[in-house]
């Protein structure tokens, strides 16, 4: 018998404090359905790509329902959560008979009307299909607890950040699901939480001591351990780090291993929270002034920007003029329209970026030379999401003094060379590159950059998580508010089913 494996993906990382809700039409703009999914994702380094590859390799039938993925933005609208939950239930009903499903969820999607969006999606499916094997593939930045996964049989997450293992994660989920179907038994599944909140900037898996813990987790035999960074900018009861263990030796073993790795995180909580130095804008400018250009670009990371339109550091670069600068993928649809109307070869006044929230630093008044405008899209060449399609919408390449900016209409992170090659340029053409990615830029830029300066600005995603105004997370029980959280010696764990 050929097992029929459905696939559905609903994926958003939500910064609770971003004022713009992500409405249904934003998800719909990037949603692919049915046969479009194999056409778009076969052979790509993505979760559907990995799921499809294992189905084809192991003789299972891949039954694609839908896939929508938006990266990191604000809260999802309640309507969007309801819409895709409904579509999931309808899709599963219409695709019957099914032998299992792979659900691709983030883990840190946040919506005003839902205490836990992913739990709602999983529980809704479990209520409709009590016996359907459900495998969940999560983002490493998901906020997870045992209640979220109580309806799942299998749960795995990315084990690299940058997420260069998205395809592999789809493969791990699908391989485990097919094993469960074949052997007629589910693995043990446990979640342990060490009570730690870290900013995204510290979650890069190349940083010590996290890199050592991740390497140990990836090597564990006959079980699948996902160490989760969590996402501190989503305000939920389960915000924070966690460990998911799926273990074929059974539930007792799963719980013991989840606790073991949770304990490793707990013991290193202070080091995990301070894995890279964080500079002020003035300290970063002083660093640039103190070091002559080497021919290799310095990467500045304005990491606290959550909507790709912050202007704190752009303003400082325009004032201090430290050298040729590229600012890729600055989000400002309004300026893109104005630049396009003015046309290439002209100079116009722009009120540039800084429009999504007061914390972004506000718009900068500039005189910009228009170098190029038009619709822009590309296929990702870097390992992170390799092969995926990115649509920037109406785009303008503009020059302000020695600062060049690509102004885009759709939110996208500049994480690899594509942000340059789409304009016939290369990162080495610049002395300074101003990025807004948190960890995903590292795969491409660590080997290439002269150095990486992480800069903190008074914005929506501060490095100091104690500045985040939590309403749902009980911070009194968490590091760094509490130096020795009580729950950490006996981390919360629990049988998932
Ligand atoms: Zn992530």
Automatic annotation (TrEMBL):
Pfam families to which the protein is assigned, alphabetical: DUF1485 (PF07364), MlrC_C (PF07171)
The protein's name: Microcystin degradation protein MlrC, contains DUF1485 domain
Domain of life, per lineage: Bacteria
- Quote the InterPro entries the UniProt record gives: MlrC_C (IPR010799), MlrC_N (IPR015995)
Domain named Microcystin LR degradation protein MlrC N-terminal: residues: 4-287
Q: Mark the transmembrane ranges.
A: none
Query: Where do the Microcystin LR degradation protein MlrC C-terminal domain residues begin and end?
Result: 308-472
């Amino acid at each position: 018998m050929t097992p029929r494996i459905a696939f559905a993906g609903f994926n958003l990382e939500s910064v609770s404090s971003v004022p713009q809700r992500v409405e249904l039409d934003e998800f719909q703009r990037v949603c692919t359905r049915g046969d479009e999914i194999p056409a778009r994702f076969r052979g790509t380094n993505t979760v559907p790509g990995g799921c499809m590859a294992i189905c084809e390799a192991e003789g299972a039938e891949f039954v694609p329902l839908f896939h929508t993925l938006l990266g990191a933005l604000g809260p999802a609208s309640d309507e969007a959560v309801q819409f895709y939950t409904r579509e999931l239930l309808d899709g599963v009903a219409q695709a019957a008979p099914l032998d299992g499903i792979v659900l691709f969820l983030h883990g840190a999607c946040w919506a005003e009307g839902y205490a836990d969006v992913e739990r709602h999606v999983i529980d809704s499916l479990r209520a409709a299909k009590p016996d359907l094997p459900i495998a969940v593939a999560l983002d490493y930045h998901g906020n997870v607890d045992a209640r979220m996964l109580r309806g799942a049989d299998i749960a795995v997450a990315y084990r690299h950040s940058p997420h260069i293992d998205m395809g592999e994660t789809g493969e791990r989920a699908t391989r485990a699901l097919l094993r469960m179907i074949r052997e007629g038994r589910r693995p043990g599944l446990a979640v342990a939480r060490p009570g730690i909140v870290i900013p995204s900037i510290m979650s890069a898996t190349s940083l010590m001591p996290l890199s050592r813990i991740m390497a140990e987790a990836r090597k564990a035999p006959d079980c699948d351990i996902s160490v989760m960074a969590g996402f501190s900018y989503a305000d939920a009861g389960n915000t924070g780090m966690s460990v998911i263990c799926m273990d074929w030796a059974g539930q007792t073993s799963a719980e013991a291993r989840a606790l073991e790795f949770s304990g490793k995180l707990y013991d290193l909580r202070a080091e995990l929270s301070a894995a890279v130095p964080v500079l002020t804008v003035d300290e970063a400018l002083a660093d640039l002034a103190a070091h002559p250009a080497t021919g290799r670009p310095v990467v500045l990371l304005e990491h606290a920007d959550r909507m790709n339109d912050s202007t704190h550091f752009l303003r400082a670069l325009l004032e201090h003029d430290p050298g040729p600068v590229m600012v890729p993928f600055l989000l400002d649809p309004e300026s893109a329209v104005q630049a396009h109307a003015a046309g290439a070869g002209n100079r116009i006044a722009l009120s540039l970026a800084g429009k999504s929230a007061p914390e972004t630093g506000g718009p900068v008044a500039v005189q910009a030379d228009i170098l190029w405008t038009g619709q822009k899209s590309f296929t990702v060449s870097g390992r992170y999401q390799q092969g995926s399609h990115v649509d920037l919408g109406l785009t303008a390449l503009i020059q302000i003094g020695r600062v060049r900016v690509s102004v885009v209409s759709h939110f996208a992170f500049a994480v690899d060379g594509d942000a340059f090659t789409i304009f016939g340029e290369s990162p080495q053409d610049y002395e300074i590159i101003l990025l807004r990615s948190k960890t995903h830029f590292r795969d491409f830029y660590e080997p290439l950059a002269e150095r990486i300066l992480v800069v903190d600005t008074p914005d929506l995603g501060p490095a100091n998580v104690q500045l985040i105004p939590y309403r749902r997370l009980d911070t009194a029980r968490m590091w760094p508010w509490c130096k020795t959280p009580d729950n950490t010696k006996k981390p919360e764990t629990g049988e998932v089913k």
